[in-house]
glycerol-3-phosphate dehydrogenase
Amino acid sequence: MSRFAGLRKPLGVAAVAAVATTGGAIAFSSFSHKTNFDTPAVELKRDAKGVIIPPQFPSLKSRADQLADLRRHSSDSEEYDLLIIGGGATGTGIALDAATRGLKVALVERDDFSSGTSSKSTKLVHGGVRYLEKAFWNLDYPQLQLVMEALRERKTFLEIAPHLSVSLPILLPLQRWWQAPYFWAGTKAYDLLAGSQGLESSYYLSKSKALEAFPLLKKDTLKGALVYYDGQHNDSRMNVSIAMTAAMYGVTMVNHAEVTQLEKDAEGKIRGARIRDVISSVNGDAEGAREFTVRAKGVINATGPFTDAIERMDDPSRKALVAPSSGAHIMLPAHLSPKGMGILDAATSDGRVVFVLPWQGLTVAGTTDNPCAVEREPVAQQDEVDFILKEVSKLLTPGTNLTRSDILATWSGIRPLVKDPNAKNTESLVRSHLVTVSDSGLLTCAGGKWTTYRQMAEDAVDEAINTFKLSPQTMSMPDISGAGDGQFKWTTSTACTTRQIRLAGAHGFSNKLPAQLSESYGFDADVAHHLATNYGDRAWDVAAAEFGSSGSARPANRLAAAYPFIDGEIRYGIRQEAAQTASDIIARRTRLAFLDVNAALGSLPKVIDVMADELKWSDARKKHEWTESVHFLKSMGLSSDKLSITREEVIKGLHNKVTSEEKYAPSSVRAGSALQELSTGTVLAKKETPNQV
């Protein structure tokens, strides 16, 4: 029996599932659930002359003050309800959920917020079309439930952080006629499973319309295309925003603070942890680096790929929970994806899928799914990079001549998949999550994926309240909106409310914000758009950090000529987002290292100088930062022959010299040209497509 003939059973299941989730009504007409971002929740104010009055936001406690708070909680008389280990999406999500239920919470992260897997995703907020296909083929209802859960959470992203997440159309090229009904059924099932939480309806494009949308598509076997919708976000900016929102709501939030030991009472129950301040160690402050105890009624392990390391602090004989899997990605010039539309290759040589997506003005392509070791700074392996490059090249017209020299950066994230002893490979594992409690009381939340971080957090806090017998308090929460009139003050509930809690930056965001920033500060259009869509209404504070009291008498200082990142982001990142190292800035407060590793290297002298000015670094600390940052860039694809480059050589521009040993040839000049090519290809609005289903 052919694969096409075998579709009847899974497609029948798809139809049944679709009916079940839409109240029994199937309608294949177009629908749209676009959110209107023309009107912000908090409107800007203007003076009598019509000049914009920038909003005023509450300041975040400094890292030093947060660390002092942490040190004070060293006894039973002064303890937290929860101590969370891990500052990725899961850990910060748990912290926000717990704090907004009236619990007293602290979070510590060994490195930086989002320094691991949470900054190295494919940047999608999605239900998972490939998981949906597996659910139907294998009649796997738990996997179907995972897709439905993720589709619900996808819409929440766009509502609580509209500045950081968007709806993205993704094109599925059809190379054989039988794929049309197969993919059509799949995308329609995907639409219908989302129900009222859907984005926009999928639709069909003829061959000519598909090529109009994406002129570089391989033409000879193309029959047409289907377009469906998923979400996309800036992952590390989202993670930092969750962390800072939690801190504003009372969480003691400390990055670069390492757990060295779990503390147990006389009955063997975990009641806290020993902590070491990594920054004090780096600065040579022996007293500040001395370990201290933090007490808590419950400790939560939310360390992603490092879950088992914390588990074995509790019990060295503990069996592994996590099956780590590497997900490699490459950054390519902008013209390789049409503006505002991604591509899904569902017919790769090994049966996996590869995404080619517009992101931050360039193109991200990935991913792989291979078993791997757990390490702090994983590097995309050459065979993984070659696989992605080969699969992307297969999608394109032969004259495109895509080569390794087109790669601007590479990275690999380690997925913390929950281990299934019966699974033969990590690609077959469901991306579901696990909440478990050990005999000594260590609560671990593992597995899952970015899209479902909020649901994972809700489940973990529910379990923590029950296990540790916590008593959520009714508390008045501050107004973090910048409205200035207290209209967004609110009172906590014992139930989870994070579906309704806007993250910092969301209240004053609208589609008009870039123009308003340019009106007030004279920003170039690309800088204004970047600030609005990465900081939301906090872009006003970034602008103030850039210009200080001088207003906008000068152009903004860019970190790299071809990119919209500016000096003010460094100062804001330190003052309001707890940035402590140069890598924090180039990789997670801005995304320059992910976009163009060579441009990130070129920005390091300026980044380190500004940070030294803000944080009063010694010359020794500046040298340390240079060494550590260049080493970090190796994990972003920096060629080995540049790992010994000096600050003076970079200032002279020698980092732009391409040598015979260089694996990748990122070029700020080429990237700048790519940014100018954003207009290549036309994204078709559905009202313009007569072939729409």
